[in-house]
User: What shape does this take?
Amino acid sequence: MVSMVLGILLVLVALPLSAGAQTHGNLTLGSSLTADDRNSSWQSPSGEFAFGFRKMGRGAHLLAIWFEKIEDKTIVWSANGDTLAPEGSKIQLTTDGRLVLNDPGGRELWSPNPTVAGVAYAVLLDTGNFVLVSQNYVNLWETFNQPTDTILPTQQLDQGTKVIARYSEMNYSAGRFHFILQDGNLAFYATPTPLDVSDAYWVINTNGSGFQLIFNQSGQVYLTATNGAVLNLVTSDTVPTSAFYQRAILEYDGVFRQYVHPKTANSSSRWPRGWSVVSSPVPPNICTSIPLNIGTGACGFNSYCSLGDDQRPRCHCPPGYTPLDSTNEMNGCRQDFTPQSCDESRPETDQFTFNRLLHTNWPFSDYERSAAQTEDWCREACLVDCFCAVAIFSDEGTCWKKRIPLSNGVMDTSVGGKALIKVRIQNSTSKSTGDGQKKNKNSTLIIIGSVLLSSSVFVNLLLLLITCLIYRRFRSRDSKLLWAVQINQAAVTQTFTFQELQEATDGFKEELGRGAFGAVYKGVLRSQDANFVAVKVLATKTGEREKEFEREVSAISQTNHKNLVQLLGFCNEGQHRLLVYEFMSNGSLADFLFGSSRPSWYRRVEIACGVARGLSYLHDDCTRHIIHCDIKPQNILLDGSLTAKISDFGLAKLLMANQTRTTTGVRGTRGYLAPEWFRNMPISGKVDVYSFGILLLELICCRKNYEPEAESEAQIVLVDWVYDCYHEGSMLELVESDEEASSDIRRVRRFVMTALWCIQEDPALRPTMKKITQMLEGAVEVSVPPDPTSFLSSI
Ligand SMILES: *[C@@H]1O[C@H](CO)[C@@H](O)[C@H](O)[C@H]1NC(C)=O
Ligand SMILES: *[C@@H]1O[C@H](CO)[C@@H](O)[C@H](O)[C@H]1NC(C)=O
Ligand SMILES: *[C@@H]1O[C@H](CO)[C@@H](O)[C@H](O)[C@H]1NC(C)=O
Ligand SMILES: *[C@@H]1O[C@H](CO)[C@@H](O)[C@H](O)[C@H]1NC(C)=O
Ligand SMILES: *[C@@H]1O[C@H](CO)[C@@H](O)[C@H](O)[C@H]1NC(C)=O
Ligand SMILES: *[C@@H]1O[C@H](CO)[C@@H](O)[C@H](O)[C@H]1NC(C)=O
Ligand SMILES: *[C@@H]1O[C@H](CO)[C@@H](O)[C@H](O)[C@H]1NC(C)=O
Assistant: This one.
């Protein structure tokens, strides 16, 4: 009786296990897996690796091998990155001894190449190697011999084996970077089909005696000679194998890195959780390592590469350029404006100005070089040349003209001189304006022109005018160029008369927005090469004395950071107090984030880091430490290339000095305001940290902090919902319908944890903005945050 009960129990216990259909041993002929929502897989005997399907998007599956026991389930090999398998596809070890991936219609999507037949069984080894074995136990084919971008301990690569980086972090199709053991040397290439080793951007040279590339058990990657002698260490750190998973990967940015991951989640704090890089990356700085005059360089055309604080390359568009593909920063940039006309009768030289980038160069795009010149000469030479897109001016006085497409762009302290980037001033003829509209404008011009030209008196007048203009242009060129630079460096505060600003805004006609301090209008400064500006009309009763106002404004205008909206000038005339800012063409983050087109995860990450850097600068780095006091999406603006810029900083001190702290919020809806505002507590920079935390959560989840109409009651208050999800480990719920974010769940977790630190009730527990910047960038470990409200209950 007892044994019968036991038996039933055993069956009950065993049933769900076998229903999971996880094979741990040899795969016999006829075995198959189907691509569906169950992520079906075959596992290695230890369960550490799995072979099977991974869902990459709606109805698109990748046949892959991955680390099964870690949260990321990091993929180490894949079969069909270029042609993802639709729902219902099947990988099959056929009864006639072939491994083949078929779509639901039976069409072959992938099979080992060259063709392998006569397989008796297949096995996924505990090393992560998937092997097809013949009747007489000969290995017919193994994934270790056909790597994708990753190599694993015990893997050995022979001559001619290619390791090809994927296209982007989440796109497993082949990218342009690869390395190959070629003529005994390990050569890294940035183009898919290079000519020969002279096209390589990095070569590990063994004088031709290299025979194999080995990743040994203890974590070293090296080249050996035919006799097994170690020739050259590629990565040199040894790792305690028993405690860490390891992999070495040629990443999509063209850099070969070796990673380790603790096997148990709670292992000593020496390593952060998740993968961390060991050994120095190869090459150490890819931005400066591609000395080739073919191809695009480390980044795409018209962009430039710089090494981030985390030692990873970043691709940026120069000012006036935007990414071709917003989902892949390595795809290059395009001009945001119509190129200069080469029509000699309409040279457009007054339509262009220069932005300056220090330590930046595009070494191979030049077509003309002039020695012993001044910077102004260099600008002018580029300005009058419609082919010139960028002028590089070296400290020694050499001027290079560069043309489109710019390639191999790099920004690095090792690069001398400066890049002068030619951009169109007027937006009116920008590419984005409809063609029809442009034609209309031109034709009206022509009509006006032809009517006027019919009078010969007018012709004379016109000639006179042109002569004057040319004369003035030559005289004023220097000051004009100077102004363009000053706008970018913004060291001066202009003063404007009220009338000037009234004219600039066409009588305050186009309202851009309205905030706590007054309304903002779009304007154009005709005196200054027609730059668009935003004019803020301050609510009049500011209570500040004249001198004090000017002192504050000049302090504000001295702040200069990529993530702050630049103050260009002001007007202080009796009742009228106005501030003039640079114009942000993409409006506020509130509209961008909560609008109809939800921004990509990558874009949101950039924005979060940008705002954090801007705040960190305000708090710590600028001469006067500024507390913003009103961080919220409405006060974050986006420029033409969607760079986040904080606006309205410095105004709190200027305008709220004597105001009592009034808050209209009700509990639960008080939004971005730190608890200090509601209690009798001193106000410090930590109020901005709190507000930033809320903003960060909104960026992560792409929703407002308070949504009375939310699906379930638990979701109404964002902070509560996030903490619940975090607490229960159901982080995916937060970014459910967001594939990009779901697949970057480790960063989501890091961001959520950072945000939870920011919104601690106790200001002392909140990190500084500088620390937060590092936490977001992954430069420091983020420890487990306490329940944000625990302080509340203790007082
Ligand atoms: C797989 O098959 C091989 C050869 O028959 C055998 O040596 C090995 O033990 C088998 N492994 C398992 C886990 O059954
Ligand atoms: C399959 O994998 C996806 C992402 O890798 C995951 O969201 C999903 O929960 C998995 N499904 C199952 C049934 O495990
Ligand atoms: C991956 O990138 C390639 C090249 O741009 C593109 O053709 C393909 O559609 C992308 N695949 C996915 C799944 O996005
Ligand atoms: C390659 O040859 C050069 C000069 O002949 C020598 O200095 C260098 O050590 C050699 N490198 C290897 C890896 O044998
Ligand atoms: C790995 O290679 C290093 C360097 O060649 C050597 O010291 C170490 O003993 C090797 N480890 C194993 C497990 O072979
Ligand atoms: C980590 O886990 C091991 C067993 O899995 C346990 O013995 C050890 O106490 C844990 N360490 C910590 C710090 O939790
Ligand atoms: C430039 O023109 C485009 C299209 O008309 C418009 O969306 C954008 O806001 C304009 N930018 C500026 C700086 O006026």
The chain has 15 helices and 43 strands. Confidence is low (pLDDT under 50) at residues 1-22, 427-491, 656-669. The pocket of 2-acetamido-2-deoxy-beta-D-glucopyranose (ligand 2) is lined by residues 38-39, 54-55 (CB under 6 Å). The domain at 18-146 is CATH 2.90.10.10 (Agglutinin, subunit A).
